[in-house]
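Feature request disguised as a bug report, sorry. It would help if multi-protein outputs had a clear separator. Right now it looks like this:
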Amino acid sequence: MFSSSMLAILLVLGQGCTKDSMSTPDPCTDCTDSDLIEGVYAPVDYVFDLPDWMPQPIIPEDNPMTVAGVELGRKLFYDPILSADSTQSCASCHRQELAFTDGRVFSVGIRGLEGRRNAMSLVNMGYNARGLFWDGRSKTLEDQALVPIEDHLEMDNTWENVEQTLRAHPEYPQQFRAAFGIERSTELDRDLVVKAMAQFERTLISYQSRYDDIVWERNGFPTDSEQRGLELFFIEDNQSVEHPGCSHCHFNPHFTDHSFKNNGLDSVATLADFPDRGRGEVTNSIYDNGKFRVPSLRNVALTAPYMHDGRFATLEEVVEHYGSGGHGIINEDPNIRPFTLTERDKQDLISFLHMLTDTTFTQKEAFSNPFVE
């Protein structure tokens, strides 16, 4: 039994044992709802509206396409808030009217410094499973989108800063909830940012050029010059002509095989002497030095200047280069060999390349800047 004195001590101790003095705090004192995001998560699948002859793009299992995800990605793509000084967006170097290139030899970042390679077109990138950038260093669109944010020659920001900025934004947390179902703004991170941008970029599909309308949809006919250019472009191996054809690397329906090739641009003493090692920088194989990704020729008339270093200002210069046949470097593609084209042949080839221009693509509202009315 307790003595009266012991009971008094316990009563005193009990009175002094407030919530603030307890060694284990009440969990409720640490609870906060300040980062909870209001709004409903009811995702709607994004459905590609493509003709039967155009395949579906590659969609990773961990980033299914939704209407809200695509729209969020579009907004992020055009928002300069991702750069360190809020002056530059992804669209600064990838302009819709230029088939998502920028018309420059080298893009310029927020510091006014040039990059070292030409900005690639984003046309039909959702079909590429062989690696992005000119050297293929990023395997997916999600991986690729991580790079420009922290590149000192581009947006020169940090992902930590981007995450904090977007979490504090008056609209983005709700849009990320609508797209990905997050419940708290603290769940908004770089992985979701690049997933949204990749979803938008996978919608950038060009399939309504004059070539597509004539060849695939059977509407109308090419001009005589376009037809001759088409026949030169698609020359087959068994044809007894000198010109090797362009379709070994640029074939239907994407006009690229997404591979990496040395297309005879540089004359070097050894494979170690390329000014830009290209694919070799990624694989560390000397035989990949001087190889670069084969770009799509869709909308090629809009994407000058050409090659990884923007060395050719016109399609005429490109045709002249291929006619010269390269330099005989050991790892040049075997189809890089000299051939003779008449002036009419050259113009016919260029007429065909203009058939690949898709004005529906370059003017499509769903691909345009959502901040501009």
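(second protein starts here, but nothing in the output says so)
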Amino acid sequence: MILHTSRLPAALAALLAICAGAAEAGDAAARRIIGFSPDGGYFAFEQYGLLDQTESHSGWSEIAIIDTQTDQLVGGKPILVVVEEKKGETPLKQARAEATAQAAPLLAKYSIAARGQRTAADKFTFPDDMIAYGDIARVEQASERLLETVQLEQILADSAKDCSASFDAARQGDKTGKALGFRLTLEAPDGAPLKVLHEDKSVPESRNCPTSYSLSEVYEYRVKGKPSVIAVLVQRFSQGHEGRDRRFIAVTGQIP
């Protein structure tokens, strides 16, 4: 496992580590890796959190099951459960339990379990934690776009939603009808491109006009006699009601 830390000052790293461990949750998702199917054909993970803490304590959980050959969601969409806060209940715990129950038949169908190895990670993305609301912007600024042999580039892509307010002043080009997307490239050890794992042609409205993307983790699963399978977790940041939101996108594919 490779942890990239060079871009984050030690004082900020210490502050975020404390906040991440003891924070009340803002609208910043945490994630749980579920794993791969035995043949590497499917990958699953959960992301979860509390919706905009200043307005609601509703808990949510989303489980994505992805066909690694097509990089498409099984059933066309993730399993999403949102539970509103009620007296005497824990909405996040309930939402996670309900999403897990709904996903169980599919996870069993494809025999998805804890398989694979994390081969690279930026630990300062704090993927296991719903980071403190005030720290989301700092995590966004400190994030990496190169992890080992995976390179992320931010690009403009078509969008049905007007995202002009989400662009920084430095971004050049015609932004009309555009939103911020990303391209993910797998590179050889010498830096030569091997394969484009993902390239946005259009940005779905569900991404809520992203302000940036960055890399969190890379997982690999080796299957005897078959190409290895890779799953890359990308952080997506966007503007919420009170500040930045964080969500995860998993990109999967086979390694040449």
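Even a blank line would do. Unrelated, but nice: The chain has three helices and 13 strands.
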